[in-house]
Here is the input.
Amino acid sequence: MCEHRRVRRVVGGIVILAAIGGAVAWLVAGLAGMEVRIGSTRTPLPGARTMTLDAGKHVVFYEAPAASGAAADLQVPAVRVELAAPGGRPLPLAGYSGSFTVDGTDGRSGIAIHTARVPRAGSYVLRTAGGGLHPREAVVLGRPIGARVVRAFAGAALVAVVGVVVGLLLVFLPRRRPKEPAGIAGLT
Here is the structure.
């Protein structure tokens, strides 16, 4: 095997390994620090809190210490939630259609119960009523994570596919031989 081919195989292998490592790093960076709940929005049941929110979709969580430590075991009592700009009408809340639970390192677990679309960044009042099933229960807003998870996986897949394809091309494509310069026929 010629030296040039050996070098291309080594470089191709390094590119493939770098692509896989880069994809894993992309995924870890995309998913790391993905704290869903916004602690500054935690509002006791019953209670009210004024907060500053960014425009966009927010998830409304019922939160309490779960006896087993897992949100899946948390029972959600009847809870009424209202989110409005100060002096404004309440924003429409949609029921949460999935089963999104979070277990925090603070001993609290949460279950998504509603979603709200905040039309513009600014000050909002979160009012809560009901509850009474658990001690230290609260309502807390959180950020949706679906789009971030999709971006993290899609980016990692793109890095891996492009890197592996480039690496395989380096390993398996034959070396192009330079064309001989056109000369005058019969001259040596």
User: Anything to note?
Assistant: The first strand starts at residue 43 and ends at 44. The chain has a mean pLDDT of 81.
